[in-house]
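The following block was generated as part of the benchmark described in Methods. Ligand: pyridoxal-5'-phosphate.
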Amino acid sequence: MSQPASPSFIVDTDLLESNLQILADVSTEAECKIVLALKAFALPSLFPLIGRYLDGCCASGIHEATLSHENMGKHTLVYSPAYKPEELQDLLEFASHIDFNSIHQWERFREVCLAHPRYANGDLQFGLRINPEHSTGSVEKYDPCGPVSRLGITRQSLIDVDLTGISGLHFHTLCEQFTDDLASTLDAVHECFGDLLSRAEISWLNIGGGHWITKPNYDRAQLIELIKKTKEKYHLEELWIEPGEAVAIHTGTLEASVLDIVENGEEKIAILDVSPTAHMPDTLEMPYLPEVILQNQGKATDKIKYHLGGTSCLAGDQLGPYYFSRALKLGDRISFQDMAHYTMVKSTFFNGVTHPSIYLHSEQDGYSEVKKFGYQDFFNKLG
Ligand SMILES: Cc1ncc(COP(=O)(O)O)c(C=O)c1O
């Protein structure tokens, strides 16, 4: 099959496998377990491959958990800011770990949790998400330790609480960060929760996601050392990491084509067959400017400025400015880089804009189509 038509997401499975190999090596060397955070990347057709390297998935609710259980079938770790009774009842049947975000939720469900036979036979464990109140990131929106964070229990709220039935603690406070921030977070966790972690009944710690493990300049040796030291310090049986971005980073593109070029005074805006707001919402939400490649771009000569706009009617549905070495023309193929993570999982059918198809690519097998979208998918969502 030749290069797929636009619009399309293309995930390179060779690159994905390189990331998975790095993660599997960390897991072996550090003697820890690593699961994929489905909120970042959740293509079930790739779960057999991912399951060969990782220990399962972490889910944020019943739908992601079911996806993990039915398509990967390894460990399913679940944490949700709040559970509904009927969802929790379903999760008890197959999750390996269920983490609670508040003492109130744990106390509400403790009886039904501890009465479940899977708890009694050791197949199911319960944990609490903690908030070490130690901010290390730079973007407020991604900081679960901020002053009005709803995510995780502060030490203040854990005083004099009966922890019978809880066997682990879970924190997630990082986002695209390196080991020095993990180290300072572990110090903060020790200061606030070290006494709990040292208790004999606490046998595991989940250090969340946000670790940029597969970035070339990430200090994996330090990560391995930190994990080993943490396990040793608290006599933990297990330490879990749940990366999302690190699994799929640098593995996929969103392929678009130029449909029109409009001018507004000095500004040129190329209208593409993709939509930033519908297909790569983080570019506007975060916001950030993704790298793009213009296909068959000759050698850079003049830098010609363009904005790249989507086919939705939202005025802000455009990115830029970008600078190209030649004038754009209709049909030009533009490839948005690094679009595998937090894209396909977040895309919408807003404004009825055609959703990009999903393809896989590998050196050995070439391109293969995973899914095409059409009017019926738009209709089904709302109808
Ligand atoms: C609880 C939890 N675990 C894991 C992750 C994955 O984080 P990342 O994709 O940055 O590795 C997230 C992301 O928000 C999260 O909220």
